[in-house]
Amino acid sequence: MSKKKLAVVCNYILRTDRIGGMDRFFVAFDTAAKKINYEIDWFFPDAETFDFYRDLTVFSAEDKLTVEAFFLDHLTTSKAKYNGLITHFTELSTPFYKDAKKLGSIKQIIAVDHNPRPLNGFPLKKQLKNKLKAFLYSKAIDRFIGVSSYTAKHIVKDLGKTVSLKTGVIYNGIDTSVFKKREGESEAKTAYKFIVVSHLRESKGIQDLIDALSYLTDAIKMHIHISIYGEGPLEEDLKHQAQDLGVSELLEFKGSSSEIPQILANYDYLIQPTYMECFSLSILESLSANVPVITTTVGGNPEIITDGVNGFLFQPKDKTKLSSILTDIVKGDLKITNETSVLIEKEYALDRMVAEHINLLN
């Protein structure tokens, strides 16, 4: 039986210092696809070569072109033909899909949407542009997949009801086996360790966390320490903000780390004050480590966090509420005693995510 050829185009940079949930999904999906007679060519914008991806056939644009343009160039120069194309982290309903389908004689295109929406929605001009793109190019896409119900709803909102019948949901999943689990508390605590795992940009709302810390009383501050893992353009501004507000001693900027699955268990709560989110892998990873989550009500967050059960929710930009949550945790008035990992192992495991994506090929 001849093998089927599949291309996966991902606007996602592979890095040795960041092996996260999507990296594990890509490798697991490649393995599962091979078992049903698919060969996959993977296309990334800038891919470091390292052992984790040793079994994948990886093509790197090396920042010379966008990954979409690089793939179209590959189709033109190599004359490669594919049975299917899957995209991750790319813009939906653009000329790319129509061009790719034609150049690669591609029978099925699946667009997986991981892209968060702005807190206040798209401006009118962008909304009209989305509708026009849907009219011109959405026919080239056979399936739209949102990584949460929130995302699927917004695919239809952005592109119009004509795409609703071919829009579905596959929730993100993680490899729960790689996460060390936090042990339950056996006695009253006198100090609380919080962790932030995030790209350091404005939309992640970490500036609000720093403001919220400045609202705390000195008696509460002395019981709090926060480690921030991640890099980004806002890092220096955040450090200056913390210094100006007199809370820098509560924060430690740790940079990127590939050891997050082991590190999480050392903390009491994950804080994610984000303005925009589809369905956060960081939240799934934290819960898998039995670490409850303090986060905002945006995107798919309320689909996984139940307030008071496996974390605490607050409205985005509500710094006063965030400060209140931190205060009440330290005072012992708020506490999560449930085992948060059970839900993740049952509903959001990597094997389920991979199987549902494989089913799209059948």
Automatic annotation (TrEMBL):
Organism ancestry: Bacteria, Pseudomonadati, Bacteroidota, Flavobacteriia, Flavobacteriales
Entry protein name: Glycosyltransferase involved in cell wall biosynthesis
InterPro entries: Glyco_trans_1
Entry-linked Gene3D superfamilies: Glycogen Phosphorylase B (3.40.50.2000)
Domain Glycosyl transferase family as annotated: residue spans: 180-333
Pfam families attached to this UniProt entry: Glycos_transf_1
PANTHER family: GLYCOSYLTRANSFERASE
Top-rank taxon, per record: Bacteria
MF terms in GO: glycosyltransferase activity
Keywords: Transferase
Source organism of the structure: Leeuwenhoekiella aequorea
